[in-house]
Each structure stands twice: as structure tokens, then as C-alpha cells.
């Protein structure tokens, strides 16, 4: 059971943009890592774009499960995991991350923010904390 990506996005007009993201592509071949990360960023954006405000959904994309939560204020979170990772845990993580993000980052920064301008460093920690290690690894 693995988590590959944890993203915070803003669903504004006319499109969704990434505010902050963390990726774990360590299980992929070295030469595939950048394209896998690009795929995950693109997929996260696309799923948030297609989800209604105030909704939660889980979408299967290739061999991944993408869990999305779009709050009514436009703040969105996406977790990309393998098929075995528990859905309930993903939504608990998204709730926690979006609540914390909205307390630490001003709402005025969301529409114009980008990964380079937003100061929020907890995503990598959450991604590794919620990573489930297989027995014996």
C-alpha cells in the first residue's frame, strides 16, 4: 500500500491551479520519475477541475486511485495512491491537510499562488507519515 502524491490546489475561475504538492516516486525507475511526477500533477489538476465544489470522489486512473476533496471555498486536495490504500484514510488525510493549509496560508494568496510562492512545508511530512510500509521493508 503506497501513497504517491499529495496535492493542494485552488479551484477558481476559469481553471484549477496547483498551490503545493509532495511526491514519492522512489519506487519508480530513475528515468521514469519525472514523467510519473508530471502525470500525477496533471491528473490531480484534471480531477480537481472536474469535481464540483463541496464534493469528494475516488477515481481510478490506470493502476492508481485518485481521491479528491474540493471544499466549498475552492480549496482542493488530491491524494494519489495504489488500489490497496484505504479510501477512508485518504479522506482523513485530505481533511487534515486542507484544514491546516487554510489556517496557515491566507485565503487571499490562493487565487494567485503557486508552489514557488506558497509557504507550507508539511506535505512531505504527511506523505511519509501516512506511507504504509510492507512488513519486512
Automatic annotation (TrEMBL):
Note the InterPro entries from the entry. Answer: Longin-like_dom_sf (IPR011012), Longin_dom (IPR010908)
Superkingdom per UniProt: Eukaryota
Tell me what topology the record assigns in the membrane: Lipid-anchor
Alphabetic keyword roster: Lipoprotein, Membrane, Methylation, Palmitate, Prenylation, Protein transport, Transport
Q: Does the keyword Membrane apply?
A: yes
Gene Ontology molecular function: SNAP receptor activity
Places the protein is found: Endomembrane system
Q: SMART domains in the record, alphabetically?
A: Longin (SM01270)
Tell me where in this chain the Longin domain is found.
8-127
Q: PROSITE patterns from the xrefs?
A: LONGIN (PS50859)
- Identify the GO cellular component terms for this protein: Golgi apparatus
**This protein's name:** YKT6A protein
Q: Name one GO biological process term.
A: protein transport
**What family, per the record?**
Belongs to the synaptobrevin family.
Amino acid at each position: 500500500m503506497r501513497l504517491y502524491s499529495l496535492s493542494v490546489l485552488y479551484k477558481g475561475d476559469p481553471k484549477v491551479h496547483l498551490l503545493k504538492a509532495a511526491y514519492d516516486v522512489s519506487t519508480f525507475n530513475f528515468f521514469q520519475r519525472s514523467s510519473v511526477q508530471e502525470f500525477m500533477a496533471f491528473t490531480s489538476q484534471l480531477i480537481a477541475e472536474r469535481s464540483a465544489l463541496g464534493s469528494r470522489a475516488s477515481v481510478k486512473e490506470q493502476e492508481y486511485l485518485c481521491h479528491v476533496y474540493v471544499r466549498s471555498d475552492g480549496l482542493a486536495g488530491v491524494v494519489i495512491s495504489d488500489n490497496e490504500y484505504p479510501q477512508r484514510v485518504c479522506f482523513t488525510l485530505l481533511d487534515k491537510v486542507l484544514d491546516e493549509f487554510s489556517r496557515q496560508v491566507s485565503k487571499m494568496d490562493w487565487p494567485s499562488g503557486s508552489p514557488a510562492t506558497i509557504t507550507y512545508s508539511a506535505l512531505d511530512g504527511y506523505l511519509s507519515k501516512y506511507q504504509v510500509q510492507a512488513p519486512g521493508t
